[in-house]
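Researcher: Here's the sequence for the chain we discussed earlier.
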Amino acid sequence: MSTISIIGTGNMARTIGARAIAGGNTVEVMGRDQAKAADLAKVLGDGATTGGWGTAPAGDIVIVALLYDGVVPAVTRYGDALAGKVIVDISNPFNPTFDGLVHQEETSIAQEVATVAPAGAAVVKAFNTVFRHVLEKGRPDVFLAGDDARAKARVAAFVESLGLRPLDVGGLGMAHWLEGAGVVTVGLAGHGVGNLDFALGVTELPA
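Model: Thanks. This is the structure I predict for it:
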């Protein structure tokens, strides 16, 4: 099992934390508001702990569960405290109308995190194509992108501990397209599917 630190105290932090605990992982919660972090750790139970904002995370895998515009500043704030860690970005940088990305070029929040992360840290994009309540109650596929094969393997093992299937889509440059897939899920929710009770996935045909 994995040791996980979650930076953030919102709905995705709660959901990932709950599934992590249920999967036998060790969980630490970190947030700007220490009281909220403590409350979430108490709700998660089973030995979940809290860590101080900006201090060295206890987890080998650090999940940054923040809105997209807070991810890079948070990683910058933690700085060398993240050295040697696997940093997982789950954010979706949607534009105000939720039909595109805020990027003006072919980049991603995960790639921007990699530019400010300390030496020895590895960045993986994951979980951004799954709606929170589907992650809470369903068994969706979880797409991963990253340049470090060992880091992706560690995140994949964590995803499997949640009872989910990890699917590697390639290097960190693919994080841009995963963020685009996040836009596709919103479009489907508003049009082709008409609700939020689904997830993107892969169906393998028999040989």
